[in-house]
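// run 5 | inverse folding | seed 20
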């Protein structure tokens, strides 16, 4: 029994890191990060308004080294920490916290040890993050600076922002995790920001010891980005989603009324409603929406080219709306893919003479044979467009994009993407062509109101402009020069 105890102590000692870290706050995060630190052998001293060792011991009962943990008053924990202090309290309490520390500091005890405060807070729900200019970490930094200069002390305190993007659950999850996949993929990254290089180095070392990967993103002013990152949930998806859904709705309504108004085959609205098929309308409007959204993605680039040609330089900032458009092309592209998927699934379920009679050879009054050549062309162009679209969509997933070099990525996104636009347009045009070839006399209103023709106006415009900017030498050379950083005189454009 004695031997066993000896061995246990040896193992624990070999794991021990001779460093005391203070954690202020015994809430969810304080406990979670404390578990991780204790697990890796750090000595943890909690600073609490109501030190309660029994409560904390209960929190850590699944760890076998709670003896390296202590809980005391906030100032005492601060004072006993070697260097690092993790501030796990809400930002509302920062002023109290700073006052408590500063009221106990004087010329004599402030000489002892410098402190690195790891500031982990997130923005509060009540914060208006659109107008925020200063982060919580910067606020804390200036609170300390003010008080230190008021007291005329020479006490180095460095604030490092970090950990706010990892939640309390994930930081200690690996302790209980038994799932192989989760264990092999648990490489958590901790972006950090701070003004002092040595302080950041210390935090980077801490992260590496406790099995995390720190990523220095710059000075303390970058911490606002880290705080906003948690607030702006799917922010870049907001406008693309809204525009795509509204656009789909408009298309749906257009499909619905357009057929009745322009074909006038059923003479009354009641008759029209009897023939109504919801599936058919969703198929048509999702196809239309998908093709236009895809064109919209590449139109952004075309407008950017025109803008740069106009000003003869790449150094003039794009207007905000264009900048936003260029930044959200991925989201628009993925919505195009989403609508293409709806279109394809519903089309495949309904490709039969009841829904698409014109795609099949008529063998009798109510009987149909194989597909016509036109029907086959429609299907083939549709299938190939969709397969290529899958490739383009996959290459916009970060992990896949990272595995491609720039040329490969550009080839898939630009060349294959544009080829999709071309094939999609052919898919529509071949349907329009059948309607056109069946006309006994030219009816301009009929031709111009065909959705299958309208559906390719924008894609064709984008394809033609892309072709001109890419292959019409005087323009493509000028764009190339601008992109290489040269200034092309406006009068030459
Ligand atoms: N929870 C998460 O997943 C998560 C993720 C990222 C970032 N964060 C950030 O971590 C910080 C703590 O979050 P939490 O979830 O741990 O909050 P919490 O569970 O509410 O705990 C906060 C702790 O702060 C201490 N406290 C409360 N009032 C105080 C005061 N007036 N002065 C000093 N200390 C006070 C309390 O500890 P004592 O009773 O021991 O004094 C309390 O347990 C927050 O800034 C939050 O934004 C949390
Ligand atoms: C397996 C692949 C596909 C099949 C089977 C298919 C099938 C169809 C069908 C049945 C229609 C409706 C014809 C009608 O009733 O008038 C249609 C129309 C259309 N499809 Fe596809 N399609 C495919 C892929 C695609 C893709 C990937 C796109 C876009 C990127 C697309 C864009 C369109 C457009 C714009 C229309 C015209 C919509 C309208 O008339 O308003 N299709 N397709």
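// decoded
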């Amino acid at each position: 029994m004695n031997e066993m105890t000896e061995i246990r102590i040896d193992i624990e000692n070999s794991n021990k890191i001779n460093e005391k870290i203070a954690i202020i706050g015994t809430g969810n995060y304080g406990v979670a990060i404390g578990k991780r630190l204790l697990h890796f052998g750090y000595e943890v001293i909690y600073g609490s308004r109501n030190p309660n060792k029994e409560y904390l011991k209960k929190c850590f009962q699944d760890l076998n080294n709670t003896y390296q943990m202590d809980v005391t008053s906030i100032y005492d924990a601060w004072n006993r920490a070697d260097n690092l202090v993790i501030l796990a309290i809400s930002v509302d309490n920062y002023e109290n916290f700073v006052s408590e520390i500063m009221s106990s500091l004087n010329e004599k005890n402030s000489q002892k040890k410098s402190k690195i405060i790891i500031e982990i807070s997130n923005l509060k729900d009540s914060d208006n993050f659109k107008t925020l200019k200063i982060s919580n970490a910067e606020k804390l930094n200036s609170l300390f600076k003010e008080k230190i200069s008021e007291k005329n002390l020479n006490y180095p305190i460095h604030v490092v922002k970090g950990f706010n993007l990892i939640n309390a659950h994930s930081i200690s999850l690996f302790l209980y995790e038994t799932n192989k996949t989760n264990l092999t993929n648990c490489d958590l990254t901790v972006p950090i920001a701070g003004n002092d290089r040595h302080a950041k180095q210390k935090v980077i070392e801490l992260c590496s010891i406790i099995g995390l990967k720190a990523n220095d993103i710059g000075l303390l002013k970058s911490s606002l980005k880290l705080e906003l990152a948690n607030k702006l949930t799917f922010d870049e998806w907001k406008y693309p989603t809204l525009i795509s859904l509204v656009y789909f709705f408009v298309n749906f309504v257009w499909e619905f009324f357009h057929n009745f108004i322009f074909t006038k085959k059923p003479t009354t609205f009641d008759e029209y409603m009897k023939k109504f098929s919801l599936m058919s309308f969703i198929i048509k409007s999702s196809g239309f929406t998908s093709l236009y959204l895809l064109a919209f993605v590449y139109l952004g680039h075309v407008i950017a080219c025109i803008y740069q040609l106009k000003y003869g330089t790449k150094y003039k900032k794009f207007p905000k709306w264009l900048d936003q458009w260029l930044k959200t092309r991925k989201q628009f592209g993925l919505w195009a893919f989403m609508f293409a998927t709806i279109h394809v699934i519903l089309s495949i379920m309904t490709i039969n003479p009841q829904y698409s009679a014109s795609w099949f050879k008529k063998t009798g009054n109510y009987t149909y044979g194989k597909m016509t050549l036109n029907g086959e062309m429609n299907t083939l162009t549709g299938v190939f467009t969709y397969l290529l679209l899958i490739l383009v969509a996959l290459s916009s997933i970060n992990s896949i994009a990272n595995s491609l070099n720039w040329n490969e990525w550009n080839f898939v996104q630009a060349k294959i993407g544009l080829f999709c636009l071309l094939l999609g347009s052919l898919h529509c045009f071949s349907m329009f062509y059948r309607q056109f070839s069946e006309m006994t006399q030219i009816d301009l209103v009929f031709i111009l109101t065909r959705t299958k023709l309208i559906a390719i106006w924008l894609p064709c415009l984008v394809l033609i402009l892309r072709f001109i900017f890419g292959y019409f030498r005087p323009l493509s050379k000028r764009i190339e020069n601008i992109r290489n950083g040269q200034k092309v005189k406006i009068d030459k454009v």
